[in-house]
Every structure is written in C-alpha cells, then in structure tokens.
Amino acid sequence: MNYLEIIEQKYKFSLPKEYCRLNDMKCFDLDEPKHYSKALNDPYLWLFELEWIHPSKILTFDCEDQIRERYVPFAFNGAGELWCWVPKETDENGTPIVLLDNIDSGTYEAPDFKSILFQQVLMFIQNQQDDMLIPYLNKYLLHFNEFFCERWQVEINKVIATGNDKISDNYFDITYQDMVGYSRYQESFQWYNG
Nearest 5°: CA angle at 93, between 28 and 106? Predict the structure, then answer.
C-alpha cells in the first residue's frame, strides 16, 4: 500500500484525482528549498501562498490533535497556516479546502482541489510584478490544462497575452468569485474547542 492509499484509508475519503496526478508528476518533490525564480524548471510545483507537505509526510505532519480529527493538512503558507481538506464534507463536487490559522480559526477557501489551484494562479497574477509571471503561467497551464475548464484556461491565456500591468486591485476577488462562485468562500469558523 502506498502513502496515498494510506491517507485515503485513514481519513476515509478519496484524494482528488488532480492531487494524485500532480504527485505522479513529482510536483511535491522538493530536493532543497530555493527561491521561486530558481525553481521554474524543477518538477516541484511552486504556488503563490501554498507550500506542499510531501504526501509521504502528511500522516506524520506535526499539528494539533483537533486538526487531525477533522482536517487533512496538505500544504501550508508562509505564515504557517495550514491548507486542509475537510473529508467529512465531501460531496459530488469534491472535498472542500479550508485554511486554518495558528490560533483557533479558519476560513473556507475552495469547493475542491482544482479550485484552490486556480485560486493560487489568480493570486499570483494579481501580485506578481516581475519577469517570472509569464513563464510560471505557462508552467501552470502545462500542469493544469487537464484539470481546468476552458474558461479558466482562457483567463490565464489572456494574461499571458497582455500581462498583468492593467489588472485592477480587486482582480482576484472579482475573477475568483465570477469563475468559481464558491458560496462559502471566506466563511469563517473555529477549529479549536479549548
């Protein structure tokens, strides 16, 4: 039994097919930490606010017991907040993604795994102001074209063609809500019951 199967068995849910595919592509394998500008040609998939927990380490990742009871952490951000699946809320659309802070609360971020990938691409578009924007967008399209609907791909290709210098300050909020339309986006909750 491999570590993906062990995760599924322990948490009683099916890992998203997109996640399994990225694992097959070695997108979670980081030989050594490096600045994103030096990682473009690595198999590791660098995203804006999402640093992967290697699948082999998910079961042993150090976090609160109350998190382990309800959530499955698969990544973290620069502040150490955890990106997690919520297996008990899996429905026909997928398994929701939440972001848990280091204290006691969290927010719903996406209805499924492919939507969190799209969210990260949009955040990158909104915030990236250097010559790495277009090469990374091309890399994202290469990795995500089989997951992303045509509308999402068109949006990314539009930015590749025109750049992001004319993007408004609320580009991310408007585009994410328009193209994903997650009704629970940014809905807050308490994860810690101390």
Answer: 65
